[in-house]
């Protein structure tokens, strides 16, 4: 399976500009025959706490545009979006199939308290397992990466973890280490997409989008060269590794 990692330099709180960029990046992914395109956390706005400005209803411009582009381009999409519900704001990851239909969405379970996210966006209370392009997968958002129990809860049910983020370069070594750990301990592919550039708060991001195998080997590392890179994985490798080394059978939850 071929994946496109969209390591965007996100324009701060500018949905129109970011959606136009996303469309161009999707065209590149389709040219390279990718099946799934993965965008960062809050890809259309950046990691802004100005929820009143950036969040919109599920059927707002961002998700609607993603659904349209997925159907037009024939490619599945995973992307982070700030959403306004009836009584709160949520930091979500949407899973959209190649027909443009919403498969499921995940609400970030752990708001980043250091930045005050937990005071602005409501936390989710569930993990999701979904099938997309014939693979069983789950998705997590940025700060969730520091809480391994979330991944453990669904490890036996999936072959791929997707992690989308706005993770600054000042802590990028921790990002690298945590991704590798999640792959090794769960014997699962980890497909991770981070942004690059500088956000509206002056924080710098240096990418490091990457893919780790179920054995913890880094398949490739996407630094700052471009905003779209394609990776190929054999999702059957998860089953092979788990059969050869059946460590998850001994797991206690």
Topology readout:
Elements: E1 2-6, H1 15-31, E2 36-38, H2 51-54, H3 61-73, E3 76-84, E4 89-96, E5 102-107, H4 117-120, E6 130-132, E7 135-141, H5 148-154, E8 160-164, H6 172-186, E9 189-193, E10 196-198, E11 204-206, E12 209-212, E13 218-222, E14 228-232, H7 236-244
Parallel strand pairs: 1-2, 2-3, 7-8, 8-9
Antiparallel strand pairs: 1-14, 3-4, 4-5, 6-7, 9-12, 10-11, 12-13
Helix pairs in contact: 1-3
Number of separate structural domains? 1
The proportion of residues forming helix, as a percent range, comes to 25-40%
Q: What proportion strand?
A: 25-35%
Reading side by side through the largest sheet, how are the strands ordered? 5-4-3-2-1-14
- Please identify the structural class as seen in this structure: alpha/beta
> How big is the Rg?
17 Å
- What is the CATH H-level superfamily? Carbon-nitrogen hydrolase
Low-pLDDT regions:
none
CATH topology: Nitrilase/N-carbamoyl-D-aminoacid amidohydrolase
């Amino acid at each position: 399976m071929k994946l496109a990692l969209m390591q965007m330099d996100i324009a701060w709180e500018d949905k129109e500009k970011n959606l136009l960029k996303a469309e161009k990046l999707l065209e590149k992914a389709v040219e390279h025959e990718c099946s799934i395109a993965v965008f960062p956390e809050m890809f259309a706005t950046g990691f802004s706490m100005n929820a009143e400005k950036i969040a919109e209803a599920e059927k707002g411009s961002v998700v609607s545009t993603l659904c349209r582009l997925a159907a037009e381009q024939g490619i599945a999409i995973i992307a982070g979006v700030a959403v306004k519900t009836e009584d709160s704001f949520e930091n979500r990851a949407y899973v959209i199939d190649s027909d443009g239909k919403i498969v499921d969405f995940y609400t970030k379970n752990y708001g980043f308290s250091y930045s005050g996210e937990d005071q602005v966006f409501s936390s989710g209370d569930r993990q999701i397992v979904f099938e997309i392009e014939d693979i069983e997968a789950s998705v997590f958002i940025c700060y969730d990466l520091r809480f391994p129990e979330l991944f453990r809860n669904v490890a036996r049910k999936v072959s791929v973890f997707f992690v989308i983020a706005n993770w600054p370069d000042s802590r990028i070594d921790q990002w690298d280490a945590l991704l590798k750990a999640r792959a090794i301990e769960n014997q699962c592919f980890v497909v991770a997409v981070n942004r690059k550039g500088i956000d509206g708060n002056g924080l710098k991001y240096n990418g490091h989008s990457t893919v780790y195998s179920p054995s913890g080997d880094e398949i490739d590392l996407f630094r700052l060269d471009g905003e779209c890179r394609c990776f190929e994985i054999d999702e059957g490798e998860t089953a092979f590794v788990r059969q050869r080394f059946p460590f998850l059978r001994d797991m206690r939850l």
